[in-house]
Design a protein that fits this description.
Layout (H helix, E strand, L loop, with lengths): L19 H15 L2 E2 H12 L6 H13 L3 E3 L2 E3 L24 H15 L4 H12 L6 H16 L21
Antiparallel strand pairs: 1-3, 2-3
Helix pairs in contact: 1-3, 4-5, 4-6, 5-6
């Protein structure tokens, strides 16, 4: 699901100094609907809704300032709200095609654990391929296999998944541990 961003008042120019204070409602709207959401996705939603050209440096700086002012929690390159629900797996829709960098580790972990549980065990390469397919990515891309491998290893370390470097049987039926 993509956020419905409120329009800016007609007198606000996103490039003007001080406009970041008016932009905070848009930031909170995106975070409230799509959290955890990558900062680049927030930028894209606001630019699309407010008809901001991607190369306008002052507008981009004002969006970054609005993110800092919006009473959201920053987790690396992701933002969320303090009362945001737990992670959910969000598959792509035409309005929201995310890269692997734009999907939070908790969401990818949940997708991995759910697929392992549903398959009652699966090879690591098949698991990576299925999650990549779920998100519309090519499973053989190095950034995909590398990131999935890191998350699978972490899920094994914390006991959420069992197995070795070749197979991933479920360790238990609960959600991934943080």
């Amino acid at each position: 699901m993509t956020a419905t961003v409120p329009p800016l008042p007609h007198w606000v120019d996103p490039a003007d100094p001080g406009s970041q204070f008016t932009m905070t409602d848009g930031v909170r709207a995106v975070a409230g609907t799509e959290a955890p959401v990558h900062v680049s996705v927030v930028h894209q939603r606001l630019r699309d809704t407010w008809n901001i050209a991607g190369s306008e440096t002052r507008s981009r700086d004002n969006i970054d300032a609005a993110i800092r002012l919006a009473d959201v929690i920053r987790d690396g390159e992701f933002i969320t709200l303090a009362d945001a629900p737990g992670p959910v797996v969000r598959t792509p829709v035409p309005a929201c095609q995310r890269t692997i960098e734009q999907v939070h580790d908790r969401e990818l972990g949940l997708a991995l654990v759910n697929l392992v549980r549903d398959a009652a065990g699966i090879s690591r390469s098949e698991l990576t391929a299925r999650v990549a397919h779920l998100y519309g990515w090519a499973a053989d891309e190095p950034d995909i296999t590398g990131r999935m491998g890191e998350i699978i290893s972490e899920l094994r370390r914390n006991g959420t998944l069992a197995g070795d470097h070749h197979a991933a049987p479920p360790a238990h039926a609960g959600p991934p541990r943080p």
